[in-house]
Amino acid sequence: MMIALRFIASLAILIGCLWAARLATAAFALSLPAPLLGLVLLFILLQTGIIKSKYLLPSCGPILKYMAVFFIPAGVGLICYLDILGENAWLLVSVLTLVPALGLLLTGKLASKGRYYD
Amino acid sequence: MINMLLGCSVTLVLFFVMRRLNQRWRSPVLNPVLLCIVLISACLLITDVDYIDYRNATTPISFFLEIAVVALALPLYQQLHAIRPYLVLICACSFVGISSATLLAFLLCQLFGASTALSASLMALSVTTPITLIVTDSLNGLPGVAAIMVILIGVLGGVFGLSLLRLAGVTQPQAKGIALGVACHAIGTAAAMEHHPAAGAFASAAMIISAVITASWVPVLFTLLQGIIS
Question: Name one Pfam family in it (chain A) (predicted).
């Protein structure tokens, strides 16, 4: 029972941040995505100590651990675009290989300029 | 209501079965999300169920997508003191990595003459899927295409990323972690964690920081690039 209550309370904090961010983006016509603003908002609340991280753990733990499951419905949406995928197969293959390769090489090289203390 | 119960339970059960499978044979190729998407897509195509019906039946699952983005604030907060000395470096790396990946994807789209909707779906592929979906949505792209591409990029990065970095002469685990986190999001981060604990910590910090940078910077960059082309 307590566990369920803790879960609901911490989920309510997350939803509260998301809604506050939605209101803010709508009210000020911001082009920033609302969930991102919610992330920043929650981060500020944590950093200023208004919200303790232990309040968030009951819902954040499972949500972050199983985050991948939330993408499945969106991913299945690809069946609406099978013809587009087929027509652009070469573009997609080159994006799939070249984009992460360039990203890895550039960031890897740049990051290895840093001095790290073990 | 019955549809919703059926859609959600089938999706969740399949995901946990695939996760088990992935834990048994540890391989990024057996990515649970990828397997689930392929299997459910095949089922819908075979049984002739409309995608819209499936999407409506799984709204409770999709509802958590935006909440998961907000929840990313917690790991960022928890790691901040460990990475504080490297914060500027990680931000600079993320910015360079994201910008160059977006630029390359845009150039490839122009080269192959892709439609605007398709180009918009290929702009934000280096980051974690919820951010990609949000950015794709704001650019009027095709979320289904973006989601599957992000996952495939993560899988490729997880399989080949570390070897590529070794070939390029990147030796420090921290640098490898940053590169994997920026270029290959959560699946790359998982590979970095298996490689070295320091690499894992830097990868997850880099992943979250590049999520913030992507969501705010890629839409601007895409608009700029389109302005230059037209």
Answer: LrgA
